Amino acid sequence: MGFKLGSKSMNELVGVHPDLVAVTRRAIELTVQDFAVHDGIRTLAEQKRLVASGASQTLDSRHITGHAVDLVPVVNGKLRWEWDPIYMIADAVRIAAKELGIPLRWGGAWDVKFTDSEDSPEDLVQDYGARRRQAGKKAFIDGPHFELPKEKYPA
Ligand SMILES: [Zn+2]
Which SUPFAM superfamilies does this chain map to (predicted)? Predict the structure, then answer.
């Protein structure tokens, strides 16, 4: 589609694992929905603030080690945390990751091997929410978040 990562996005990718950078760069070429890298690497202090504000749930974030990115839709020049464009980005990210042979975990359905899944991102989110409800747990869903799995990429 001809989208490109802007300079802010490129800055956010500094320090991020090269495999995740490669997926992000390929995804921006494939996506029908423009996005920005809102968060790449984070310091522990930043992560503590996010947990305190409720925006994140863990101090053990993959952002701290450079194994996670948040890809947020850009609509009319503005960042938008909206599901329809988030699903389109997730589609492009999955295609890019499969093409490059890089496994990814997605914040829309944490317990699924995202790059092995075939279901639409929308279905994955709904099924994940249903599984959590059934288990009597809250679903913390973070659609813009993609990370390299710990099993293959230990910190
Ligand atoms: Zn994230």
Answer: Hedgehog/DD-peptidase
Distance of alpha carbon 27 from alpha carbon 36, whole angstroms = 11
Dist. CA 88–CA 25, nearest whole Å: 16
Residues, beta carbon < 5 Å, ion ligand 1 = 68, 70, 145
When pLDDT is averaged across residues 21-28 and rounded to a whole number, the result is 98
Neighbours of 110 (CB within 10 A): 16
Class of the domain covering 7-147 = alpha beta
CA–centroid distance, residue 68 to ligand 1 (Å):
6
Cβ–Cβ under 8 Å, residues 67 and 153: yes
| CA 76 to centroid of ligand 1, rounded, Å | 23
Output the pLDDT for position 1. Answer: 57
Each domain of the chain, given as residue ranges in start order, spans 7-147
pTM of the model: 0.94
**Calpha distance 122→86 (Å, rounded):** 9
Mean pLDDT of 107-114: 96
Q: How far is the CA of 155 from the centre of ligand 1 (A)?
A: 16
